[in-house]
Amino acid sequence: MTKQDPQTMPRSAVTEKIELGLAKRHRRENIFRAFGLTAVIFGFILVFFLLFDITSKALPAFHQHWVKVDVNYSEKSLRYAAGDNLADLSYRNTLRKSIYETFPEVKARRDKRQLNGLFSSNAEFAIKEHLIANPDHLGTTQPVWVRVDDDVDVYLKEVEKLGEPLVRIDQKEAQWIKTLVDNGAIEKRFNIEFFTSSDSREPELAGVRGALTGTFLTMIVTLVLSFPLGVAAAVYLEEFAPKNRWTDMIEVNINNLAAVPSIIFGLLGLAVIINLFGMPRSAPLVGGIVLTLMTLPTIIIASRASIKAVPPSIREAAMGLGASRVQTTFSHVLPMAMPGILTGTIIGMAQALGETAPLLMIGMVAFIVDVPSSFTDASTVMPVQIFLWADSPERGFLAKTSAAILVLLGFLFLMNASAAYLRRRFESK
Amino acid sequence: MTTTHLAFAVIIIALFSYWLGIKRAITVAGGEQHTRQLVSLPSQYGLLTAFWCGLPAILFLLIWSAIEASIVDSLLIQQVMLTLDTTAQQNMSLLVNNIKILAEKVQLNEDVSAATALQLQHAAYYTELNTKATWLKTLLTLVIAVGCVAVLLTKIKQSFHARNNLEKIVSGLLFTCSGIALLTTIGIVMSVLFESIAFFSKVPVTEFLFGTQWSPQIAMRADQVGGSGAFGAIPLFVGTILISTIAMCLAIPVGLMIAIYLSQYASPRLRSVAKPMLEILAGVPTVVYGFFAALTVAPLIRDFGILVDLPIVAESALAAGLVMGVMIIPFVSSLSEDALTAVPAALKEGSIGMGATHSETIRKVLFPAAIPGIVGAILLAVSRAIGETMIVVMAAGLAANLTFNPIESVTTVTVQIVSLLKGDQEFDSAKTLAAFALGLMLFITTLALNIAALKIVRKYREQYD
User: Fold this and answer.
1) A349 in the same domain as A238
2) In a domain? residue A1
3) Number of domains in chain B
4) What is the CATH number of the domain that holds B377?
5) What chain A residue is nearest to B435 in terms of C-alpha separation?
6) Residues of A in contact with B384 (CB under 8 A)
7) ipTM metric
């Protein structure tokens, strides 16, 4: 038999019809595919745009401009008399006089006030600390580096980038700043204070230490409560619970709780934990309890899945050797399920770390300067700090907010990466 | 001793009693060599003793801490009542508060010369009550801890089934933990329900549900003329629906197409890059999206508006809605992908074998088969959009405009809850209670959506399994 050439085969009407439509169908196929690819690319663009936008806004916050003032520690301007305590002298006066000496041409009162505004409100404390540290400088003129005001700081950073003046700095001020820069009296330094100081109304002084400590305390409470509770609940539901209405109800409940909006948990915290039990407002303890209730469903669901994945042969072998149910669970099933449970816990904690809304309800939005030192101190957390700064009108806070976001994203990335690492190790077993 | 110190003390006693229990068991058995005489392992006797010691004491401590403050307060109020005439009793909570502050000042040796003798006497009484309560708490906790250990130690005999007793306690504990989820739900329902009932006794339900005026700020001062405020929630519901609709208009098509492309077309390499990309989108905290919406997207949209000569307000619903849509994309795509991959391969292979193109198979076979799962995913996404708070708090407005125009400023239920409850507030004003009524609406809506979604998904699963 010879093979028939398909080209010369007789065609039916149906085949003809199909072939006619083929080009159109293929075109449609390609369009559909292109749509899908576009959606995926759109996703990538979004991620890059988001990260790029925040990073580029955050970078200025890691540097701060300092200005050198030749401080004349004269006894007259300090209003110093022999025997006075160095901490109680008139440093504001001294600072102003020293500034005016640098710019002798400034005479008008309004101009002088404007000139003072170029320096951080913290400058008088800086020159005070300098004198207390070096008491022998009394009566001499010393160069002291102080922070510039936030508007000046933003201006200096933007000028580098844009080369054009900003609204908040007028021509006169720009001229003064130029003089300072030309004299080498302005220096850009790494802003370590961003990590070591707490919140402040002045953007040039504000840092994240208070919020980081608050986050740390809140996360400790959340972890200490949610991990044992979540694992215990999962163990009960997987290993001990009889199949009845009660356990069915709990199961439906957990699934629903996982999808309840987080702000509702804040309402619960406000009405029950603060108003009914009388726990302190704004405290990491209350924040931790609220976040525990919120993350419990996540941890329970992940732990149950992990416990379910332990092969039944392990349980049968342990029980066959005379172990009780409790012994089997705690010595054999749980250790094997642990990587999965830990992964779930880390994911739950990452959720809790980024959560803001319920904490607003329980008063963790207060403006707090002190670094919290216990679980009942008033404090704030990173996401809430971001929210507070984002709301501030000062331009200097824009960079601070973005930098705080970067810090938060950094922590989240670490947590998720460790969860992914655990999962991979677990899967390879 | 403070409660924390006491809890530590109890834990130390419990550790000690673990050792005591083991010792006692060995003694009862007649020495180290004869532990086989015991029904259970020595360590099980130890653990049981430790649980017996710790659990009742900690439980007592918890209950005591919960009720101590209110008992002390009521005793103090009784005392104050005795010495004051009735006119002064109306501001009782204020009085009690002042006494507490005074007592604290006395303890810190601060200046109290402004206080009257009577106030000082009350403050001293309050301090005394507190001291007594602390002493009583410490004493009772320790007695309970030690007493329970003593009782159990006398019970330990060779035939005492420590393991069975221990396991009963352990499973009881596990059972209690599993009940926490239920308690949370009950707590949520109770808290929003009771406050809402209190609210509806001040503002009629019909006004709340069907009123078109929302201006709770008026109600801040009770003595103000017309100080009842307006609590018509329709503008909030409309605003919530508008922003969620914008979000879903972005999230559903993009999320679905990503799910389809990744599950049907993408090479493993693209998948291995695209999955983490989606995880990043899903893992970014909502406060970051809020910042992005308020400071990047909203100005962009406004500039675009100026370009095409369209006045777009800074806090437009569009900015908040679009960014919320971005937040929801990974949610829609991962759930829809699950639904698509759950469709049996035979359906797909059959269709392709009949000569359908890939996209025809997806559109006419896979998609209809996966539709229940996808609808479930969309419902869950809608419930998330409705409950989302930070994006709208930061990027949407506060003024309750009744409009469907996406370039105007609207407010949502969650924005209002936050603005009503943020900061200090008196707890019985209609303004504060309104937040709980809104919370109740939010809870009911999202719960209904979740239950519907779970039902649809479950029903669908049964079809193919």
Assistant:
1) yes
2) no
3) 2
4) 1.10.3720.10
5) A267
6) 259, 261
7) 0.88
Query: Quick check: is A202 in a domain?
Result: no
Same domain, residue pair A228 and A95 = no
Residues B391, B352: Cα–Cα separation, whole Å: 44
Any domain includes B66: yes
CA angle, residues B195, B200, B206, in degrees to nearest 5: 140
Residue B293 is given by DSSP the state I
- Residue A250's alpha-carbon distances to A101, A301, B175, B188, in angstroms, are 75, 12, 11, 15
**Which pLDDT score, from 0 to 100, does residue B221 have?**
52
Which residue among B142, B160, B178 closes a domain? B160
Shortest alpha-carbon distance between residue A423 and chain B (Å): 14
Q: How many domains does chain A have?
A: 3
Q: Which range marks the domain in which residue B156 is found?
A: 3-160
How is B303-341 classified by DSSP, letter by letter? HHHHHTT----TT-HHHHHHHHHHHHHHHHHHHHHHHHH
| CA quadruple B27, B30, B36, B37: dihedral sign | negative
Q: Kindly state whether residues A47 and A98 are assigned to the same domain.
A: no
Rounded Cα distance between B284 and A194, Å, is 22
pTM of the model: 0.86
Low-confidence ranges of chain B (pLDDT < 50): 219-220, 225-226
Same domain, A363 and A398: yes
Which residue range forms the structural domain that includes residue A300? 209-428
Asked if residue A120 belongs to a domain, the reply is yes
Q: Which amino acid is at A52?
A: F
Of A196, A225, A240, which residue constitutes the final position of a domain?
Answer: A196
Question: What is the per-residue pLDDT across A210-258, written as a single tens digit (0 to 9) for each?
Answer: 999 999 999 999 999 999 999 999 999 998 888 888 888 888 889 888 8
**Could you give the C-alpha distances from A79 to A74, A89, A133, in angstroms and in order?**
8, 7, 19
CB atoms within 10 A of CB B42: 19
In three-state secondary structure terms, B74 is helix
Residues of B in contact with A33 (CB under 8 A): 261, 265, 358-359
**What region does B30 belong to: left with phi over 0, alpha with psi -120 to 50, or beta?**
left
Whole-number Å distance between alpha carbons of A384 and A397: 14
| Same-domain status, A82 and A217 | no
**Contact at CB, A390 and B394, closer than 8 angstroms:** yes
Residue B133, domain member (yes or no): yes
Residue ranges of B 274-313 with Cβ closer than 8 A to chain A:
274, 277-281, 283-288, 290-292, 294-296
Residues of A in contact with B288 (CB under 8 A): 50, 54, 354, 386, 405, 408-409
Nearest partner of B458 among B376, B378, B383, judged by Cα: B376
DSSP helix/strand/coil, B211:
coil
Same domain, A119 and A159: yes
Q: Is A211 on the interface with B (CB under 8 A)?
A: no
> Please, are residues A295 and B219 in contact by the beta-carbon 8 Å criterion?
no
Question: Least CB-CB distance to A263: which of B182, B329, B389?
Answer: B389
- The last residue of one of the domains, among B123, B139, B160, is B160
Contact assignment for A261 to B386 by CB distance below 8 Å? yes
The H or E element that residue A237 is part of is none
User: Are B279 and B421 in a shared domain?
Assistant: yes
Q: Residue A233 in contact with residue A341, Cβ under 8 Å?
A: no
When pLDDT is averaged across residues A196-212 and rounded to a whole number, the result is 86
Inter-chain residue contact B180 with A32, CB threshold 8 Å? no
How is residue A190 written in tokens?
A: 């790494």
Residues contacting B37, CB < 8 A, separation 6+? B29, B30, B158
d(CA A379, CA A369): 9
Interacting residues of B155 by C-beta distance below 8 A, sequence separation 6+:
none
A136 and A21, same domain (yes or no)? no
